[in-house]
Structure formats: structure tokens, C-alpha cells
Write a structure and sequence with these properties.
The complex is a heterodimer of chains A (about 200) and B (about 300). By secondary structure, chain A is an all-alpha fold. Chain A has one domain (about 1-200): Growth Hormone, Chain: A, CATH 1.20.1250. Helix content of chain A is about 90%, strand content about 0%. Chain A contains 7 helices and no strands. The longest helix of chain A is centred in the C-terminal third of the chain and has 39 residues, at about 165-200. The relative contact order of chain A is 0.20. The model of chain A has no long low-confidence stretch (mean pLDDT about 90). Chain B is of the alpha/beta class and about 300 residues long. In chain B, about 30% of the residues lie in helices and about 25% in strands. In chain B, strand 5 (about 95-100), helix 3 (about 105-115) and strand 6 (about 120-125) form a beta-alpha-beta unit. Chain B is globular, with a radius of gyration of 19 Å. Mean pLDDT of chain B is about 85; it is low at about 1-30. The chains are: A mainly alpha (about 200), B alpha/beta (about 300). The interface of A and B includes residues 97 and 161 of A.
């Protein structure tokens, strides 16, 4: 799951420049805007994810991050022109234009994706002694996912698919991840309940 | 060490170019780097061999994007593709407003300013450093009628379209890194260019005739404009696309225009009389290739193929 979230973050980030360039061009500042907004969104996501994990952490909330990120990514496809056009008209300077466009398009889904890693640490850590190891493992997996998402998108996906098809792929992946977590949670609960029953009977 | 190797490679590069294109014998006069500038986008080097002064981008990567000027004959255009950019005059010989995307050393806008002193000329260049180098070393200067905008070509054209501005002559000559930026190769971009054209306006686009991208680009221009003139010369790898919104004129009319213009273009070294027979509407690309769009424009990947 951490792999999937890392993968999707970088896939969307790599496509970000493509999405903004028809309005704001391909200057260095457009890349600067995108990377800045992704970093800020992730930073706040880490903070909020960590905070949320301190209060009754549950697999349902965890699944909610994936589903929420998927839902809030849909405007990148459906409303991108409606979002970028007024910004393009209002701001002559492409630096600030691209910065605001990146905020409106990418900030919410990216910050939700940022919540996943700290929350996952909380769910997986069994005891204090292993907490660092677990955090390390999670960062390892999610960053590996980011690397794969970057490479896959920039080397292959843009050659095989249209931008929106790739975005739908990422959204579908996030939804699927959320549903798998929910399924595992309820299925696991049944098993635990059955196990408890069996113990009682004995 | 890197600095030195840049200089050495540039000397090799320039002497290779001069051996190919100039009457100045290579090796007799060494290329001298007279200016180096680091910009947001690339390293800019200005070299001089004899009286040939050149602007080179990313010398260490061996890119071919460059422009030259003869210091003792500033008006003469040194490269085929700059001369070819004036073939659009065969379609529209009295442009009152001219748009040039991509400044380089400024030889195209300077020639236009000289040819049509009353025309309004807008030049769009994304890199401020290129503007200052063109002014300092390539005799470029803004005038009352000629203005440079430091901006990306695509938003500039989109905005001009929204303001309902029209240009009579448009030259697309924007290159970054290896080739034309992807967002200026797409169907949506060409539709935005159409928006700033009148029926009789002419569009001249400088492209390369190598790589698989040639097919995709040709298909995209064909879908946007219908028939266009494909202008190639055996001496260069550049392919110039020339088109307009109204139907293309017949060959006889091109020949007639060329004859009336030949005298005026002589001092720039533009052999306009040779051009009409080179303007072809024959399809020499794979028409089954996919057109490039904002959704699908993996230009850098296709170029590698």
C-alpha cells in the first residue's frame, strides 16, 4: 500500500508539468511551482497524518486516505481547464499562475497521500523497540514506489497512454488499495471473531 | 577542468561547422570564446572564428542549436534555416505585424525590421540571458516597432488569441534542449496559433526532418492546417513548414512573387528564386502516425527512436 501511494504521488507529479504547460508554458518556474506545492502538501500531510494516528487509529481511516486521495484527484482530470483558465486570465506572470494552479489542482490529494506513511507506522508498530525499523521499512517501500512511479511515467506511460488515462490509472489504483484495506479489515475481523468464539466454546 | 573542456569542444565544434559551411579555412583561424553566460536554462557561449561570430547553446552536449553572424557583413544570413524562414514571403509579401517565437541571435527579426521598417514586430524569448547576449554580441536592439517579450511562446500566443490580436507573419523557431518543447508541438497549440492568424497570414515553422517525430509532427500540422508546403533543402536537416488558413497559392504565383522579391533579398543572401521549386505539398511521411496532442506528446521519447 505504501508502494502504491508513493507510486501515485510521483506519477501525478510527473504529469503535473504536462497538465500546466498549455497555460503556463514549460519554463523552469513551472516545474518549481509543482515541486514546491507537492513538497508543501506532503509536509502538511505528514503532520496531519501523524496527529490523526494519535487518536484511535483504525484501518477504516487508513483506507479512507486512499479513497479520499482518489476522489480528490478526479478534479485534476475533469475540472483542469475550468480551474486553470480563470487563473491564466487573472495572473499574467506564469510563475504565480502555475503556483496557484498547482495549489488548486494538486494540494488536497497530495496532502491526503502524505498522511498515509505516518499513519501506517502507527498501525504497524507493535512495540517501541521496533518503531524505528518499521518506519524505515515503510519509507523504504513508499520511496521505492515513488522511484517506480517516476520512471514508469516518464519513460513508458506517456508513450503508451494519454495523460488522462494515466491519471485514471492512478485513481483506480488508489481506490483499489483502499478497498483491499477495508476488505482485509472486515475479513480479518470475522476471523478474529470466529477465533474468539471457538475459544469460548472450548 | 569542465570550463576548459567546454572551450576546447567549442573550438572543435566551430571549426567543424566552419569547415562545412564557410569559406574561412578551418584550423587557420582558431575559434575564440569571447563570452560565456550561465542562464536559467542552458549555458550560452559566444565564439568568434575570423569574422564569424556564433551563439552556441549547451556546447558540452554538442547540441546543434546555434546561430551565427558575420561581423563584417551583418545583414547576410549565415544558415539555411534562417534564410528559409523568409520563404513565407512568397505567400504573404506585405506583413504589417510579425511574430517571432524564439530569438536566438536575433537575425530573423533584424532582417524583418530591415525589410519592413513600418511593420510591428513582436519577439518572444523565454530566456532573458539570450536577449542580453543578442543585444551585446549580435547587434540586436529593440526599436519603437520591435519589442521582445520574455515569456513562453505558448501562453503568449494563447493570450494574444484571447485579446483577438492577429499577426500577418508568424515564425515558430523555439528550441529548448534537444528540440521544440513538447507543448509547442501539439494540435491544441496549433489551434491557438490559428486563432491569431487571418486567412492570408502565413505560418513558418522550423523543424527537423530526422527521427520518427517527423511523421507525428507532419500528421499534426496536416490535421490542424490541411495541406502545407514542406520546404527542405539538400544542404540542411531542417524542414520548414509553411502554411496559411486560406488555400495555398499555385506554383506560378510563387515564382512570380520570388521574381519580384529577389532583388530586395539579395543582400541577406536569401536565394528566393530557388525556393518555389522546393516548396512541396507531397506527403512524404507515414500518415498512420498518431497526431500529437496535449494528452499525448512524448516528443523526447519519440525523438530517440
Amino acid at each position: 500500500m505504501a508502494f502504491a501511494s508513493g507510486f501515485c504521488i510521483m506519477t501525478v507529479e510527473m504529469l503535473g508539468a504536462r497538465i500546466l504547460s498549455p497555460y503556463f508554458g514549460g519554463s523552469l518556474s513551472v516545474w518549481g511551482s509543482i515541486i514546491t506545492i507537492f513538497m508543501l502538501a506532503l509536509a502538511l500531510g505528514y503532520l496531519w497524518g501523524g496527529k490523526l494516528s494519535a487518536r484511535k487509529p483504525s484501518a477504516i481511516t487508513f483506507a479512507g486516505f486512499f479513497i479520499g486521495a482518489a476522489v480528490f484527484s478526479i478534479p485534476i482530470i475533469v475540472f483542469s481547464d475550468a480551474i486553470m483558465e480563470p487563473i491564466f486570465m487573472a495572473l499574467e506572470d506564469p510563475r504565480y499562475g502555475s503556483l496557484f494552479a498547482a495549489i488548486f489542482l494538486f494540494f488536497i490529494p497530495t496532502s491526503i497521500l502524505g498522511m498515509i506513511s505516518p499513519y501506517a507506522v502507527r498501525l504497524m508498530v507493535q512495540n517501541e523497540a521496533h518503531s524505528g525499523q518499521m518506519a524505515g521499512l515503510l519509507y523504504f517501500i513508499s520511496t521505492l514506489g515513488s522511484a517506480a512511479g517516476t520512471l514508469g511515467t516518464s519513460f513508458y506511460f506517456v508513450l503508451w497512454f494519454e495523460v488522462n488515462q494515466i491519471l485514471w490509472g492512478a485513481i483506480f489504483t488508489l481506490l483499489l488499495a483502499g478497498l483491499v484495506i477495508l476488505a482485509a479489515h472486515y475479513f480479518g475481523k470475522d476471523k478474529r471473531a470466529a477465533h474468539a468464539e471457538a475459544v469460548n466454546c472450548a | 577542468m569542465p570550463r576548459q573542456s567546454i572551450v576546447r569542444k567549442s573550438m572543435l565544434f566551430v571549426s567543424a561547422i566552419s569547415a562545412l559551411l564557410s569559406s574561412v579555412p578551418a584550423g587557420v583561424v582558431a575559434a575564440e570564446t569571447i563570452h560565456e553566460e550561465r542562464s536559467k536554462y542552458r549555458d550560452i557561449t559566444v565564439t568568434e572564428v575570423g569574422n564569424r561570430r556564433c551563439l552556441l547553446f549547451n556546447v558540452h552536449r554538442g547540441d546543434r542549436n546555434q546561430t551565427c553572424v558575420l561581423v563584417n557583413d551583418k545583414q547576410r544570413l549565415v544558415f539555411d534555416y534562417t534564410r528559409m524562414s523568409f520563404a513565407g514571403l512568397l505567400l504573404n509579401d506585405r506583413p504589417e505585424s510579425i511574430l517571432v517565437i524564439g530569438l536566438g541571435g536575433g537575425s530573423i527579426p533584424l532582417t524583418f525590421a530591415d525589410l519592413f521598417p513600418d511593420a510591428r514586430i513582436d519577439v518572444v524569448e523565454i530566456d532573458e540571458a539570450v536577449v542580453s547576449v543578442a543585444e551585446e554580441f549580435f547587434f540586436f536592439e529593440e526599436t519603437e516597432n520591435m519589442a521582445v517579450y520574455v515569456d513562453d511562446g505558448r501562453p503568449f500566443i494563447k493570450r494574444a488569441g484571447i485579446r483577438r490580436e492577429k499577426y500577418d507573419y508568424i515564425v515558430l523557431d523555439a528550441f529548448s534542449g534537444d528540440y521544440i518543447p513538447e507543448h509547442m508541438l501539439t494540435r491544441e497549440f496549433l489551434d491557438e496559433v490559428r486563432n491569431i492568424m487571418r486567412p492570408e497570414s502565413v505560418l513558418v515553422a522550423n523543424t527537423f526532418s530526422t527521427s520518427r517525430l517527423y511523421d507525428h509532427e507532419s500528421v499534426t500540422y496536416q490535421r490542424a492546417f490541411g495541406e502545407f508546403f514542406n520546404f527542405k533543402l539538400p544542404t540542411t536537416g531542417n524542414r520548414i513548414i509553411i502554411t496559411q488558413l486560406e488555400p495555398l497559392p499555385p506554383r506560378a504565383q510563387l515564382v512570380e512573387k520570388a521574381q519580384s522579391f529577389a532583388g530586395r533579398l539579395e543582400k541577406y543572401g536569401v536565394p528566393i528564386l530557388e525556393y518555389p521549386s522546393r516548396l512541396s505539398t507531397r506527403v512524404d511521411w507515414d500518415m498512420s502516425r498518431r497526431q500529437l496532442t496535449d494528452q499525448y506528446a512524448p516528443a523526447n521519447l519519440l525523438r530517440g527512436k
